[in-house]
Predict the 3D structure of the following.
Amino acid sequence: MKILEDQKKQDNTVGSRSKTDLAYIAGFLDGDGSLMLQIKKRKDGTLKRRFMTTICFYQDTRHEENLYWIQKTLSIGFISRRNDGMTELRINGYDQVNNIIKLISPYIKFKKLQCNALMRACKVLLSTALRKLDKTQLLEIVECIMVIQNENYVTKRKKTREELLKVLDLTP
């Protein structure tokens, strides 16, 4: 009987997290979160640009304890209060974002396209040093950015594919 109980516990966890918790977090992301892949300008370094991957959860500050629970459950991220009464939990970094997405992706329903695109981009970004990314890899990242931004609700103007190619020096 003990063996069956131990097996049941293993079936209901992923690492140290319960499948129920991961499903809840995925649902929270589907409803009140966003997946982002951005190109940021840099003043330092030789490339003058960097890629930024982010998972962000949003909640009214009156209910921010939910974000602290997610942060504790995932053991990652930083929480900040915004001036508009909202609180954010942000997870940045290719490796960290990739690991979290892998954990929750089986439970994602509405942001599946963004989720898959972000995992593809993280795979490319983790496999090669930024200065050694070739044209094919950069184009793959641009395609991932386009998928994510086309699926996200954004109030600001989005960059076009042509603008992204220009930023990456991929225009003829």
Summary: Residues 135-151 form the longest helix (17 residues). The two ends are 68 Å apart (CA to CA).
